[in-house]
Write a structure and sequence with these properties.
This protein is of the alpha/beta class and 207 residues long. The protein is built from 10 helices and 8 strands. The longest helix has 15 residues. 43% of the residues are buried.
C-alpha cells in the first residue's frame, strides 16, 4: 500500500488567479455580466459546467465553457506557481518509494499539459483527469488513478471538501491543506484525518 493521490489546483499549485481570470473572461466573450470573483471562489471545487450554471442561463453554458477552455491554456502560467515546499515534499515521497498520482477535475489532457509546463510531471507516476465520468465527490477519478498505479491507496490529499469526501468514499486517509479553495472552517466540516496549512506534516503521517 504505497499509493498517494493528490488533487492538483489549490493543492499543489496556487492557480486560483489564472482560473478566476479565465472563468470571468468567458462572460465578456459571451456578453454577460461578469460575476464577482469572491462569489466565483465559493464555487471552486465543482466541475466547470456546474460553476457556470450557478451564474448564467443554461443556454449560454456551452459557449462559456468553450471560451474558458480556449483562454485558460494560453494563460495558465500567467500567475500560477507551486505552493511553498511542494517539490521538496514530492521529492522525499519519491525517495521513500511511494507511488504518486494526481486526480483532478481537469480533463486529463489539460492536466498533463499543465503539470508538464510546471515541471511537476517528473514526480508523478500517473495523472488522471475527469473525462466523461462522475466528478468528485464521486471517488471514480481516485479509483482510476490507483488502478493506473497498480497500488492500494493510502492518502488522498486535497484542498476542497469534495476532495476530502471523494477520498473518504475511496476509503483512503484524507489530508486537507488550507491554502487552496476552501478554508479551514469549511474543510473541517468534511472531517479530514489531517487539516494543515501546508504539506509538511504529510511526510510524518505516511511513515
Amino acid at each position: 500500500m504505497k499509493g498517494i493521490v493528490f488533487d492538483l489546483d489549490g493543492t499543489l499549485v496556487d492557480s486560483l488567479p489564472d482560473i478566476l481570470n479565465s472563468f470571468c473572461y468567458a462572460f465578456e466573450v459571451v456578453g454577460l455580466s461578469v460575476p464577482d470573483q469572491g462569489e466565483v471562489h465559493g464555487q471552486l471545487g465543482k466541475p466547470l459546467w456546474d460553476m457556470y450554471c450557478h451564474f448564467a442561463p443554461t443556454d449560454t453554458i456551452s459557449e462559456l465553457v468553450a471560451a474558458y477552455r480556449d483562454h485558460y491554456p494560453r494563460h495558465f502560467l500567467d500567475h500560477s506557481r507551486l505552493f511553498p515546499g511542494v517539490k521538496e515534499v514530492l521529492t522525499q515521497l519519491r525517495n521513500l518509494d511511494f507511488s504518486l498520482a494526481i486526480a483532478t477535475t481537469k480533463r486529463t489532457s489539460s492536466a498533463i499539459e499543465f503539470t508538464n509546463a510546471l515541471g511537476l510531471d517528473i514526480y508523478f507516476d500517473h495523472i488522471q483527469g475527469t473525462d466523461g465520468f462522475a466528478f468528485k465527490p464521486n471517488p471514480e477519478v481516485i479509483y482510476r488513478a490507483l488502478k493506473a498505479l497498480g497500488e492500494a491507496g493510502l492518502w488522498m490529499v486535497g484542498d476542497s471538501s469534495t476532495d476530502i469526501e471523494a477520498g473518504k468514499a475511496a476509503r483512503l486517509s484524507t489530508y486537507a491543506v488550507t491554502w487552496g479553495a476552501h478554508d479551514a472552517k469549511r474543510l473541517r466540516k468534511s472531517n479530514p484525518d489531517a487539516l494543515e496549512p501546508s504539506l509538511d506534516r504529510l511526510l510524518d503521517l505516511v511513515l
